[in-house]
Amino acid sequence: MVKIITWNMGDGATKFNEVFASIKSGTDIICLQECGEPQFSKGEKYFEKQYDVGKYFSIGKFTVEIGTKFESFPVYVLYCFWGESSAKCSMAVISRVNFQKKDYAFYTFKNEDKKLRPAIGIKVNDIWNFCIHSASGDDKKSSAVANNLVKQISKKHKHWVCAGDYNCPTSYMDNSNWICVPGGVSRISYNKEKKEKKRKIDYMITSKKIKAKYIGIPKSLIFSDHYAQEFSY
After folding, report:
1. Total number of domains in the chain
2. What is the DSSP secondary structure assignment for residue 142, as one 8-state letter?
3. What is the pLDDT of residue 53?
4. Domain encompassing residue 69
5. Which site among 51, 63, 119, 153 is 20 to 30 Å from 144 CA-CA?
6. What percent of the chain has pLDDT over 70?
7. pTM of the full predicted structure?
8. Please, what's the b/e burial string for 193-207 (b: 16 or more CB within 10 A of its CB; e: otherwise)?
9. CB-CB contact of 52 with 73 (8 Å)
10. Residue 204: which CATH number?
11. Cα 22 to the center of its chain, rounded Å
């Protein structure tokens, strides 16, 4: 069984102690959105690839330190820097399990000649694990981007999961070619009348032969405007 968490950190460069502690305690993979630019103590960067102005991918094995005793352990990271003036909207897939240097993929969606955030993923034990952060806005716009990215993934890979911030409910996704695994309430906002609006927009989608289930909200990852969501497959 693989435990996987998705979390929109809300510009979370200062929250990585919680992320690494979750990996250390047994989470296998964490898909992060708005993760800023994490600082690792030391490690080996396998490569860094520029694919657009101010945007790049890097992948590597790093050592991280947590706790008052600075306990060290390795993590394996696919990181995507995203942003013009800051790294706020960057993304990452962090794994406690090693994967081959060549086993990474990313897919982009072009809209009016402007690239939006990609879906990024790694292959661990023959399963591709993707992270997505669809365009914000109304549900129709967000789902158009999300459906496009997930469709590209489904055409290229046989066994896969894609967890992240879809910015739209599962009902807006094309469920004929894959399986949606809904999460719980992950985003609470308020309108002008201060009326609470609960949204279930952070969840996981899988290829049809993957058996996955929703576990709940990890209690250790709560300091954001999104609640983290944990799944297993």
Report:
1. 1
2. H
3. 45
4. 3-232
5. 51
6. 82
7. 0.90
8. eeeeeeebbbbbbbb
9. no
10. 3.60.10.10
11. 15
